[in-house]
Every structure is written in C-alpha cells, then in structure tokens.
Fold this sequence. Notes:
- Chain B is mainly alpha-helical.
- Chain B has helices at residues 18-32, 38-47, 49-55, 58-72, 78-89, 95-98.
- Helices cover 10% and strands 41% of the residues of chain C.
- Chain C has helices at 39-42, 60-64; strands at 4-7, 26-37, 50-59, 74-80, 84-86.
Amino acid sequence: MPHDHPSHSHDGTSPSGHPYRADNDTPLTYWQRMEIAVRELLVEKGLLTPEEIARQIDAMDARSPARGAAVVARAWTDPGFKARLLKDAPAACREAGVDIGPLNLMVVENTPHEHNLVVCTLCSCYPRDLLGLPPDWYKTRAYRSRAVIEPRAVLREFGVDLPESVQLRVHDSTADMRYIVLPARPEGTDGMTADALAALVTRDAMIGTGLPHRP
Amino acid sequence: MGGQAAGPVPRDEHDHALWEKRIDALLVLCGEKGLMSVHGLRRALEDMGEDAFESMSYYERWIAAVNQNLVEAGTYSLQELGTKMDEIARRGPTYGEAQSGVGPTGGPHG
Amino acid sequence: MAEHVRVKPLMPPGHVRTPAYLRGKTGVIERALGAFPNPEQRAYRLEAEDQPLYRVRFTMAEIWGDAAETPTDTVDAEIYGHWLERL
C-alpha cells in the first residue's frame, strides 16, 4: 500500500489509520540522541551510508501482511503449492516470487481439529521479512508470558473462542525458525480469485490470534 | 518470561516513528556487515534486566543494546560517543532539529 | 516413533535460548531442523560451532501440571541438541 514518507505527514492519523507518533516536534530524548549519534558515527567511519539506511527503511516499510496473505491465498487455491509450502516454506515463497531473504520460515496449518498460535517468549522474533514489523501487542510481556500458559484465555481476549474439540498448538520461536499460520479457508469462498481471497487474510490470522474474514 | 503471571494483553497499536525505524535499520545493516549480531542484541537486552522493561520503551532498549554491542566491538570509543551526543543536544530541542548532521541533503533518512 | 527427550534442568546465567519454563521438562522430537551456529557463543562474539536444532513438542500437562489450562494442548519450541537428554 503506497504512502508518503512518514516525515512528511504531521496530521493525527498515519496512512495505516493508526495514531501517528509526531515525535519530530517533541523534546529530544537521551535515547534519540544516542540513535542520532550512533548513526552518524557509523556513517563518519565509512561503515554505513545514509543511502543504505534510507533503502533499508524503505524495504522494511514495503513489507506488510499483504505479502503473507498472498502466499496463503495461493495455498488455498493450489493444493500442490500448499503441500510444498508446508514442506519447505522458503522454497515455496521463492517459487511464488515472494522474496523473504534469509528467513527460516515454517508454515503451520490450521485444520478443523488444530489451531496454531505463534509467540516468542524470549524476545519478539517474528517473520519480519515476510510480514513486516510485528504489532506492539506481540512484543508485550503479557502476550509473551501468557501465550504459553493460558493461550485459550489470550485468544478469547482477541475474540477467538476455540471449542474443546480443537487442539491448540503454541509455537515458541526460540531459535532460528520463524512461523506463520496458514489459516483455514473460510466457508463460502468457492470460485473467488486469489486477490479476493488474500483480502480475507488478516495479520492476526497469520499469527494465530485471529481468523480470516468471511466473504 | 513464559508462564509468568500478567494482565490482559494491551491491544493499542502505533506506527513506528522515524527514529525507531532508523534503529531497526541500524540493527539489520550492522548485522549484515558483521559489526554485531542479533544474538549480541538479545544478550545485551537481557543483561539490562527487568527494570529496563518498565522504564524504557522497546526501541530505547534496542538502541541501548545496539550501542553496547558496537562499543564492545570497538567500532567507536566512548569519548567519540559522548562528544557526539553532546553536540547533538546543542543542535536544538526537538528530534526534528537534531536529527541530521550528515546526509546528502540533511533529508529525512540521512 | 517420536524420540522422547528431557530438557536439562540447568539454570546458568547469561544468553541461553532454552526458555526457563521448559527446563527439566520432557517432550518428543517433532522434527530435526539441521544445525545452526550456537547462539550462546555468538552472543559473546565467540567463534560459534554449529549445533543441531530440534523442534520439541511438550504437552501443557507436562509443563504446567495441574495448572494446565487444557492438558492436551501443546507447546512446540526449538531446542538445541546440547540442551537435550535422550530418554
């Protein structure tokens, strides 16, 4: 979704609809001074260039849940692709033309009997190279500590009420793997195009704290 | 962390500020260039302890950890860091005024 | 036949990617993931040896006992081989 460079917009709401942190006008903090200092020292010492930094920011901005949604939609419409995705997600993403860099991606599938939930209890590991930066709540102590001990209570807070007949699998990305959930394809979506299907797939559905929209 | 008692998951979300995106970019680029690693970042974050979680925001902890790693690697000296931070403070009272001492046009990402 | 393993109950300080809540717990190897540089060495800028990494599946009953929300739900975590004892 194209949008202006954030430093050009100073009104109340950013393009994504969230409150905008208009921090360019707020008092300079100690840690902001450190960020500027570290960045400038690295540039002065020839270790980084301003262009590289700008490019990296733009690259990260370009990553969004829409990329994951497109992979999910393709898996919903192409059983062979889905099988390959579950077996070797990085290879399947390459096949689909989605660049995920060095991400060790693993896709876990929701079924009528199994629901998956992803967390990083140790820090906030997230499949950033596919989905972009994680939501604030994913990084909170509350989510990280409760997702492995009372995940169903956490899911109810998110509006997902799992029946007892569904087993819940929590994935704690403690090391080198990063996970997305392949949500179950909603009912009533026969014949929909991949683009229309992708629009039903939310970021939270790919983390496991949500379900895809119904058509 | 896993299994500790905690209250409801706070759900409000904000877009990342430019200074936060810059810190994120610094980590990725420094990692790619071998100046530090995400493992060193995590270790430095853990060493900051529980108090830091209360008193500092996510990206404040990150820049502290990035800096810790770069200092350990000898990338720059504490003198250089202190001098630079001091000079930045004198540029002006807001982030907008202080943010660019270098860059092709002093522009937003430089 | 899934291999049963126990996470070593050690509690050293420092950068360890084996979560505290899993120390001493028994699970099954869900799959082997290959070998990766040991983060305990990388975190301290030491030359890192590749260590085998496994996804290990634990039941909530095993981890939390009577406090388990739903005993048959599971947690899958990636644990390095040097943290696992074969049973």
